[in-house]
Amino acid sequence: MSIIKFNKNRFPWINDRVPSWLDTDDFFADDFFIRDKNLPAMNVKENKDDFDIELAVPGFSKKDIEVTIEDDILHICAKSSKEEVEEEENYMRREFNYSSFDRKLQLPSSVDQNEKVKATYKDGILTLNLLKREDSKEPPKRVIDIA
Q1: Rounded Cα–Cα distance for residues 100 and 77 (Å)
Q2: Nearest-angstrom CA–CA distance, 103 and 124
Q3: Is the pTM of this model over 0.85?
């Protein structure tokens, strides 16, 4: 049994020159989200005291990834290049692999940009932890006595 790659193009006679309004794969997609398939998948979680951001960036090493914050913009980019050489009987085959991404996120005003951002990379997942400003945290719940 052979494996055949799935062809998402439902109409093989249509090429890239035809407008994309015929493509129904993203029919229910929300315009708020970027549809660029080269960007890594991302999870953002808001906690009481901080934000946790996870990006799926398999195939990169820590030295390939750069994270910066400037003017309320979190900038995450990575660039990697690999070359594999495989020798066979009478010829040599080379395969080049270049991958990169560049993602920018507008940070909410509640993020404390002066605090240190914690970043970890493990098993292809980049995790960032951004602390909230003290004045933006919710005050603790108070119990009010009834007279």
Answers
A1: 7
A2: 16
A3: no
